[in-house]
Amino acid sequence: MRQALSLGRRGLGRVWPNPNVGCVIVRNGRVIGRGWTADGGRPHAETRALDGIDARGATAYVTLEPCAHHGRTPPCAEALIAAGVARVVIATGDPDPRVAGRGIAMLGAAGIEVTRGVCEAEARHDLQGFLLRVTEARPFVTLKLAASFDGRIATATGESQWITGPSARRAVHAMRARHDAVLVGAGTVRADDPSLTVRDLGIDRQPVRIVASGRLNIDGSALVRSIPQAPLWLCHGPDAPAHDWVATGATIIPCEMQGRQVDPVDMMAKLAGRGLTRIFCEGGGTLAASLLNAGLVDELVGFTAGVLVGAEGTPSLGALGVERLSEAPRFQLAEVTPVGGDILHRWRRLPA
Questions:
Q1: How far is CA 166 from CA 162, 249, 314, 339, in A?
Q2: For residue 37, how many C-alpha atoms fall within 13 Å in the half-sphere facing its CB?
Q3: How far is CA 303 from CA 191, 297, 313, 316, 332, in A?
Q4: With the C-alpha atoms ordered 289, 290, 294, 295, is the resulting torsion angle positive or negative?
Q5: Which of 240, 309, 296 has the alpha carbon at shortest distance from 270?
Q6: Which of 9, 164, 166, 282 is most buried, by the most CB atoms less than 10 A from its CB?
Q7: Cα–Cα dist 20/99, whole Å
Q8: CB of 338 closer than 8 Å to CB of 296
Q9: What is the pLDDT of residues 62-107, one digit of tens each?
Q10: Which domains does the chain possess?
Q11: Which residues line the annotated binding site?
């Protein structure tokens, strides 16, 4: 199963709106087939693992319950039955109403032994974006903050390039590639004119770039120039001049407003409705604070540099309105790793 989980991770950021599933087929202690969900979501992992092999009497290890519904392709449960496998080991069930136990029931009705719950915690973490989209109608959100030792992202004059080193920046590009989309606020676009693409890693499938801008008062030259490489989606308020952006090839997504900002809850619901399962937010501070206040951040990734900017520098977060420590968002430490001359620390949402 751990090999199937490793295979499934190859689909992170590449298979939405489908889940990133891995499958390994074993007979007599020997791996005879393996597969993972293909780019764009099809073919599914089980179909790829079964391709070209004789799986009669074999055991299939699958990270998610095999699908049971007819869509653009036949159900994977039917494919496993037709292949004659004797046993299917499943990491976790699929909450999609079209599946939700039906895949397991189909396999059992065909006389196939089914074992469920092997490496379930790991599988649910890997599949969290898909699971959240199905159960809560929102994507998994990673918030990345790269800052000085004292939590600043720029000096008082606005200079920010570069607080962290090249190894940290390369790691950020790898993280972008493992998400369906990269999200920033309007202030980041105005200050940095970023392209938000994945570069220098040989990546052939770019994430969607998303800008949250209530009034669309941005230029975004680098974003517009790179639309042929990677999609650009603009989340904006109802009164923004969205028609000015249609000719650029950007996708326009009207959202509700929360004061002067795009409502983060409505924005995430709209993005999930378009199929996104994993979003990598790179700020700025106001957008990051709104996501935290709305309880929408599932993973917090920090890159901390050994440089001190001082109180006059720009803080990495906007106002959270915290008056008591009991009200402050808290996360559980998952990893601390040196990256070049900087420190990477990863935190996960505390269990409910």
A1: 9, 32, 21, 9
A2: 25
A3: 20, 17, 17, 11, 16
A4: negative
A5: 296
A6: 164
A7: 16
A8: no
A9: 999 999 876 667 899 999 999 999 999 999 999 998 888 899 999 9
A10: 1-130 (3.40.140.10), 138-349 (3.40.430.10)
A11: 44, 67, 76, 146, 160, 162, 176, 188, 192, 196, 199, 282, 284-290
Active site residue 46: yes
Taking the chain (352 residues) in runs of 10, the rounded mean pLDDT of each run is 98 96 96 96 95 96 90 85 97 92 94 97 97 97 96 89 93 97 95 91 93 92 92 95 89 94 97 98 93 97 96 92 92 96 96 76
Whole-angstrom distance, CA of residue 270 vs CA of residue 168: 31
Of the residues 46, 65, 78, 299, only one is catalytic, namely 46
Model pTM score? 0.94
Omega of the bond leading into 97 within 30 degrees of 0 (cis) = no
Eight-class DSSP state of 65? P
Beta bridge partners of 60: 25, 88
| 150-172 burial: b if 16+ Cβ within 10 Å, else e | ebbbbeeeeebeebbeeebbebb
Give the contacts of 74 (CB within 8 A, at least 6 positions apart).
Answer: none
- The first and second tokens of residue 245, run together, are 């952006």
Residue showing tokens 């639309």: 227
Instruction: For residue 268, give both structure tokens.
Output: 């995430």
- DSSP-derived letter for residue 100 is T
Residues annotated in a binding site for NADP(+): 146, 162, 188, 192, 199, 284-290
Instruction: Fill in the amino acid letter for 171.
Output: A
The Cα–Cα gap between 134 and 314 comes to 37
The conformation of residue 11, written as its DSSP 8-state character, comes to: G
Nearest to 90 by CA among 125, 61, 67: 61
Do 149 and 308 contact (CB within 8 A), yes or no? yes
